Structure formats: C-alpha cells, structure tokens
Amino acid sequence: MNIEEAAKQLEALGNPTRLQVYRTLVRAGDGGLPVGRLQEKIGIAASTLSHHLHRLILTGLVTQERQVTTLICRANYPAMNSLVGFLVDECCVDAACTTEQDGEAAA
C-alpha cells in the first residue's frame, strides 16, 4: 500500500458517521448488510448514508453488490487488513527495540 492510498482511506474513516458505517459493516461479516438494514442500524437518512457509502466505496474500503433489487454492502477485509498492516508493519524499525528475552536476561 502506498502512502497516498492510506491517507485517502484514513481521511474517509476520519468522519464519525463513515467510521460508524464502516464498523457496522466490519461487524456484519462476509455476508454484509442490505442498505436498508444498514440505514436502520445507523439511524440516518438514506441520502446521507448513500453519500457516506459512496466515499467508502471510492477508497476501496467497502464493496456493493446488487442482488435483484437489493444492494448489499460489505467491508472489504483485504483493504482493511492492508491499511492496518501499513500502520503497524514497521513498528519500531528505527528504534533499538529489545525482545522479551533481552529484558529477562537483564533481570
């Protein structure tokens, strides 16, 4: 993942309503949620939800699939894992980190 993509995804999640929508979809699992059910759970107007979903879809964090007349929204778990990995993969690489064994040897 490049820094520009990560920044766009983090910016999208920086809005409280979008973060709530995203967390609700993450909790829903692979089956996702129909838009109407998502709207009920979040308690916002359909047009507002549509706006926020569009932003999450544009950044790749959410996918939508039409099943006959119903739109199913799902969290894009590979994108979520990539973003989380981007944030933590290089933890402490520039620091002189000690392992737990090093700490035990010193004690």
TrEMBL record:
The keyword DNA-binding applies. InterPro entries: ArsR-like_HTH, HTH_ArsR_DNA-bd_dom, Metal_resp_trans_reg, WH-like_DNA-bd_sf, WH_DNA-bd_sf. Keywords: DNA-binding, Transcription, Transcription regulation. SMART domains: HTH_ARSR. Residues 1-95 form the HTH arsR-type domain. It holds the Pfam family HTH_20. GO terms for molecular function: DNA binding; DNA-binding transcription factor activity. This is Helix-turn-helix transcriptional regulator. It comes from Acidisoma cellulosilyticum.
